[in-house]
Amino acid sequence: MASRLLVASLVISSFALAGTALGQGAAPAKADAAKPAAGAAAPTAPAAPAGPLKDPENKKGLSPYMEAIKKGEDAFVARDFPAAVTTFQDAIKIDSSKMLGFYRLGEAQLAAGKPEEAEAVWNVALNKDGPPDLKSKVLFVLADLRERQRKLDVSKEAWAKYAQFLKDQADAKGYAGTPEERQKVIDRRVKDEKDYAAVKERIQKRQAEREKEAEENAKKDKLNK
Question: Which residues cross the membrane (predicted)?
């Protein structure tokens, strides 16, 4: 009886050892299965998207609006002003609520030799959405353009608006000393033009007197012959 129990115990122990051996031998087989077969191509990482990332919110990538603005900037830098005008107009079609497109369109119009169009676009830009820094730029270029056009009274008012905006918007970047300087220049120009007008009037009057005197002398000479 004892021998039978011993044999049974040995048999059970043998099965247990065999199971353990099989279990230990199975693990390498799984590890080998995970390895690619010889000559097989290694798995590749997903390809990165071509071109800049796109994001309508312009946070994780370029929005269509900012993409159009960038294309316009590239054309402007290349001095292809007609293309810049067209591209900035495309940006405005995408989003007409933003100030940036109108500001840059005005810059392109001015560079293309169309100051009247630039002035009209910048006037529209003032009523669009944009940060204080950008609005101060629009006010600056408007005042500067009107002065260049010799609209002296209007430009003086425009410089005053620019100065007031910088006072009201403490965070806005700008040139606080420029308005006063330009207004002084405008005042001198106005004075010079008035003084010149008076001088011009005296010159014209004297010229008319000389011409009249010459005509009278010519008549006298004719009578004396």
Answer: none
**Under a CB-based contact definition with an 8 Å cutoff, are residues 174 and 162 in contact?**
yes
Q: Is the dihedral of CA 57, 78, 130, 101 positive or negative?
A: negative
Answer whether 141's CB lies under 8 Å from 106's CB.
Answer: yes
pLDDT at position 46, please?
A: 52
Q: Cα separation of 56 and 64, whole Å?
A: 7
Q: Are 143 and 182 in contact (CB under 8 A)?
A: yes
Question: pLDDT tens across 66-99, in order?
Answer: 999 999 999 999 999 999 999 999 999 999 999 9
- Quick one: DSSP state of residue 126? T
Amino acid 61 reads G
First to last CA, the chain: 180
56-128 CATH: 1.25.40.10
Asked if 92 and 101 count as a contact pair (C-beta separation under 8 A), the reply is yes
Neighbouring-strand partners of residue 98: 129
- Strand, helix or coil for residue 62: strand
Residue 141 · residue 160 · CB < 8 Å: no
Cα separation, 70 vs 78, in Å, equals: 12
Identify the residue whose tokens are 């009249």. 212
Nearest to 183 by CA among 149, 150, 162, 160: 160
Do 157 and 176 form a contact (C-beta atoms < 8 A)?
A: no
Residues forming beta bridges with residue 179, ordered by sequence position: none
Query: pTM for the whole thing?
Result: 0.64
